[in-house]
Amino acid sequence: MTEFLKLIYYWFCTGLVAILSFIFYPCRTSGRENIPRQGGFILASNHESNIDPMLLPVVTPRRLRFLAKDSLFKNPFWGFIIRTGGGIPVKRASADKGALAAVLHELEEGFPVLMFPQGTRGGAKVQPGVGFLAVKSGKPVVPVYIEGTARVLPKKVYFPKRHPVKVVFGKPVTFSSKQPPQEVAQKIMAAVFALKEKSA
Asked: Is the full-model pTM beyond 0.85?
């Protein structure tokens, strides 16, 4: 599929999800002016529901790349859909150097990359990968906080419940190449949760 067709596909799917968002989880956003208009950056978000990766492309005016667990790509149908939409497969069980290299390439090509530093929904441990990528690429990190999606589609629930959602984008932050990746990852997650007060 050509890059042009991928672009059409991305915004077509995003439009469909926007309709579902209006029906099931009307969304209020703030801070969108903090999103860089050009160039690569990391969009780092908290992760509370399976709808989070679908919601953020709807409210972000830039075309996103994103990480997705490699098991999702094993199904030819879903694998094609996810990959065409900008998905990058990642192995959760280990430090996936291939996925990290792919993300660095996308950032250098000027694409924003969506990441969930918690790794899994509601994860308590912050993964160091986001810190490594922020330090290695030198690209800005835009923290974003999502509130309400866990009420729309909690774990082990397969049909969404209507509930309003709030999304707050913070100001871009950059980190020194001398900072340890784990420390940077912790600071990124702290910046994400600092936006919680603004979502109230």
From this structure: yes
